[in-house]
Amino acid sequence: MLRRKLLLATVTSTAVALLAIALWTEGACYWTPLTPEPLPEVPALPAALRTGSEHDALYPTVPRPYALELHDRALVLGFEHTQDPSDPQLEVLRSRFAAWSPTLVLVEGRLGWCLGGPDALTERFGESGTAVGLAWRSGVRFATLEPSFEAEAADTAEAFGAERSLAFYFLRVFVGDRDGEGLGSDRYAAALGLLRKRASRTGLDGTFADLAAFDAFWSANGLTKHGDWRELPAEALWRDGAGTWLQRVAEHVNAFRDRHAVARVAHAVRGGERVLVVQGLSHTILAEAALRVAVATTAR
């Protein structure tokens, strides 16, 4: 019996080792979700974000990805989000990564658990996954541009109050899961679970007791023109400072994330890093002036 157990243990450990070697050979990656790194401070932007109308006018005209090369210290690539491994934007990323030789890669998104090769990374995490995969295989450090979710949610709650903040975060996940068919057959149970999870993560527990309370809030806050929140169109959650309060929350959240991203890049440059930044095209267009000033100031 002992011999059999030893044989089984040997076979199992050998199989695990061979699998690890095979995955390494294929360039597979494994890591836990990226944890936002706290910054000493997140100051006001050194230059204003572009307005929505300025963004919309520029958006169709710029190349994909939109590249900002800043004082030989930071290269920012703004992508039209893609999860297609054959997207030509990603070939630009690969060539710019090789030519730039970064010491640190900063990406949009907190990503998540991962085990997979280069294509799997892109299919799951988009261009950020591709960038992190390149960094991982090259021994380059990588991190997220994002603030912690708790810091973001606290800032949003301060600006809009607990109910509207939680409503935004709940609906953003609910609509994404609904449209991605990730809710399962019992949409009521899934929605209730998401509401409670969002409340817990944002520190806003007890804001809505149940979905009936959320229904009452929805009716009382001028959003019934969208119909039932369960059928809310995704564009109702897109940034628009002149739109509904839901869209104003989205605008505010994006602006907070942009402010944090600019501070994160400046902090890295100040620390002597040669930075490659991979983020969405809209963020790059909106924050271009702030990025240019922040890097110019810290690269001296």
Describe the structure.
31% of the residues are buried. The strands form two sheets. A five-stranded mixed sheet has the order 2-3-7-4-6, sandwiched between helices. It has helices at 2-25, 52-58, 88-100, 118-138, 149-160, 162-179, 187-202, 211-220, 245-270, 281-286, 288-298, and strands at 29-31, 66-70, 74-79, 104-107, 114-116, 141-144, 275-280. Mean pLDDT is 86; it is low at 15-27. By secondary structure, the protein is of the alpha/beta class. The protein is globular and about 55 Å long.
**Average residue-wise pLDDT:** 86
Number of domains: 2
Cα distance spanning the termini: 70 Å
Alpha-beta content class: alpha/beta
Overall CATH class of the largest domain: Alpha Beta
CATH fold title of the largest domain:
Protein-Tyrosine Phosphatase, Chain A
Provide the helix percentage: 40-55%
Map the helices and strands.
Blueprint lengths: L1 H24 L3 E3 L20 H7 L7 E5 L3 E6 L8 H13 L3 E4 L6 E3 L1 H21 L2 E4 L4 H12 L1 H18 L7 H16 L8 H10 L24 H26 L4 E6 H6 L1 H11 L2
Parallel strand pairs: 3-7, 4-6, 4-7
Antiparallel strand pairs: 1-5, 2-3
Helix pairs in contact: 3-4, 5-6, 5-9, 6-7, 6-9, 9-11
